[in-house]
Structures are given as C-alpha cells and as structure tokens.
Amino acid sequence: MAEDIKRRQAGRFALCTMQERAVDWGDVLLSGAVRSLTVTVWFMCLLSGHATGEEPHCSDFLSTEPASPVLRMMGFSRDHSPCGLPFNITANVSDLPLWDPKKPSVVIIPGKRPPVVQPSWVRNMAGDLLTTGRSNVLAADWLVPGDQKLIDGARDAGESLAQVIQALLAMGSSPEMFHLVGFGVGAHVAGIAGASLHGSIGRITGLDPFAPTFTEADPSLSLDHTDAQFVDVIHTNFNPNEPVAALGASKPSGHVDFYVGKGHLLPGCPQGLIGREKYLLCSHHRAHQLFTSSIHASCPLTAFPCNSLADFKKGRCTHCDWPGLHACPQLGFNITWLPSDRPIPFQPLTAVLDITSVAPFCVTPFLLELQIGGDSPLEAQLFIRLKGGVTTTSTMLLSGPDLMSFEPTKGYQFQVSANCDGDFTTMQLEFYTERLLYLDWRKRKVKITELAERKWFVLVFIPTSCYFHSRQPSNDVFLDFKVKHNFAMTAAKHC
C-alpha cells in the first residue's frame, strides 16, 4: 500500500515536470530588472499546498480541469475524517447532515491549484477544527480553466461562494456565524465573497494573501478590512525570496495585520536554492501552518503593535497600548483577546512577532537595554544566548546583518525572542568585530545590574575576529545593561 502511494505521488510530480512549459503564469515577479517569470507547474503544485508522504486516498477535491469556472463545496465530519464529503445545497436543512445552522461555520478556501494536486493542508486544518466540536467545517474547492486570468478566476469563485453562503443564510444561519479562512489567492476569494455580502460576514482570515497581480488590481478584487466584521491577515512572505519577488502581500489589509519574522527565510525554512521549491515557498506556506497549529496550541502567538519590523527589532514595540484594544493581539484561530464590540472599536493596526522553527512556533520575548562606556565606538555585531537549568536557546543575532556602531554612553534597545521557555539565569552576549589582532588593552569590563526580581549571571565575549571565531572574555570598557521580561507567557517547552 505504501509503495502504491509513493508511486502515485511520484506520478504527480512527473506529470508536473512533463507539463512544466505548458503553463505561463506571469504573475510572479522577479526582483531586479527582470519583471516576470514563466512559472512551471511544479511551482503551482506547491503554491496550493502539495501532498507529501503517505496521503489518504480521498476523492474530495476536483481533479479535472473544467471548461468553465467551478466551485464545489465539501463538508468534514469526524465520522469520515480526514476526507471531505460533497456538500450539495438543497432546500431542506435535514438534507445537510454535515451542517448545523445553530453552529458557527468555518469555510476553508485554498489558493489556485492545478487539478493534479490536492491541498492536503486543508484536510489537516479541517481535522483540527473538528476536534474543537464548536463549528461546522466546510471547504470551498475551486478550479478555473487554464487560460483564464487569475483575477477573473478569483472573482468568479468569490461570487459563487457568496451565493452558497446566501443559501445557507436562508436556511436559518446568520452572517456573523461565518468565518472564511483563505490561503494565497483564496484570501482574495474570501474577500470577494465577503464584499458581495456587504461585509456582513463575521470574520475573514487571510493567510498570506497572494500579492502578484492583486497588488495593483481593482481594490474590490482583493481582501480588505471592509469585507467582514473582523478581518485578520497573517503575512509570512512579504519580502522577496531572491530571485523571486514576495508571494505574499506586504500592504496591510485587515483590522489586524500580523507580520511574522522578517517576511522570508523564516525559522525552519531552507536558506538557499538547493531545495528550490521549499526555499521559494516555505515562508508562504508557513501561514496556514501557523493558523492550524494555533487551534490547539499550548501557548499564544503574541504579537506587538508596531509601525515596522525595524522598530520591533530595536525594542520600540514592547507594549500592547493601542486605543480600543485591551490586550496584545494573538495570531491564530482563537480571538479571546479581541473586544466583542462591533464594529471593531479600534483603528486598523499592524503587529509584529517572531516564531520558532517548529509547532507550536511560540517564543518568549525579552527586552534588552544596553549601554557601553569608554571613549570610542565599538563596531560589532551583537549576539545573545540565554541559559537556565537544562535549557539553552540558540545563539540569536540582535544587531542586524552588518556591523553596528555602539556609541559610548548611548542607550540601545533590542527585542529578544527566546526560541524556548525556561527559567533563564545566564545571559551570554557576544560582540563580533572584524579586528584581525587581539590586543590586551582592548579588553572591556562589564557592569551587571539586577532588574525585575531576577539575578543574571552575564558572560560577555568580544572576539578578535569574526573570521577566527575566537572568544576572549571581556574585562575592560564598561557595559551597563538591563533585561526585562515583558510578559508572563507559556512558550514552547523545548529548544
């Protein structure tokens, strides 16, 4: 059985390879002077969330290219998990055993995909949603002819989905009980459906809304905060994966826009083109992985209201103060932090967070305040590592990819996102310089202060050269620093 599944998967990707020149999808932009890229089918396979490993044999998703746009609804239940079942709208509620009009309904909408590929992540998300026991779980599978423009296909799918929801409303449900979750182009499909229903839908979650072709499109054809009573957007690929431009939108479009990490090369993703598919698409797919993980996460994915990623890294976004909001926003399915008032009682905001490489993806945030003394600047990169008991974090770069000039007596703040939870007692700071020679008179002294009822034992290294990676304990110029643990959180229990 396992060998048969592997052969079927190999056949899928063989077909993708055979057809790689048959699709010209000029919607993905190259950065630099080159403006467009002919994208192969294998790229499209992965954009929609490809099947990997031993997948169940399901026939729920559409599998042949249609002559005209088509949308097929499917429902999920514990009795038939993980496969979806056809969900055909009739005039009688009793004919819909997979749907209860008294329950909230979550509708999952995948991105554009070729018929040969099934988005297995939809089944994973549906399965986790079912275990909550609180919602009807549906999926809106859609396909368009290969020669139809992407924007036109999204519009047709969104309008068809709106008609389905309208029919369900006529059977006794209410708009605020619907939550649409769309990935990639599916986020815009959700937005179009919501706009067609005049923004009455309770919630839309956009999972890294697809940017190419939609960024400059008519605003009515892309997701925005007027499409539902509450719109939250998760941005995971808002910066380019060279040489391909960002797949996700960088512009905020919801009531709350969550920006994850640096918008590309997220933790756990390949750092180079050796695995080209994963390199290009890993950060994009992290959006639906984060949302699925959040359904039963043991820790919150807390984000901080912030104007920019740069401000976040500099420790300028360490509070949750935002008019109309009483707690820091949390990325994911659960929105207990959100005020129940409608319309939303605060202005649209952007919030930033770091993640770890594996589920549940939570970090523990700290604020590091640092000041050096002496007579001359220190040109270096600053790294940090935290230790406590048997727990040790990875070594984290705080100051950026280039050397930073630390001016004497000037204060510096850094947001530290520990990638594991622990009662940390030791902090190791490392300053990497480009000095080729180690001179004894360059030793620097460290002064330690105690703050927030925590005693820290601090090790500081100022190596002679980043090339030799030599680590010389420092004893000379004065370092005065403070560490604050911002919020009491439960984070990942392992590093």
UniProtKB/TrEMBL annotation:
InterPro entries: AB_hydrolase_fold (IPR029058), Lipase (IPR013818), TAG_lipase (IPR000734). Keywords: Disulfide bond, Glycoprotein, Hydrolase, Lipid degradation, Lipid metabolism, Secreted, Signal. The keyword Transport does not apply. Residues 105-339 form the Lipase domain. GO terms for cellular component: extracellular space. Pfam families: Lipase. It is found in: Secreted. GO terms for biological process: lipid catabolic process. GO terms for molecular function: phospholipase A1 activity. This is Phospholipase A1 member A. It comes from Megalops atlanticus.
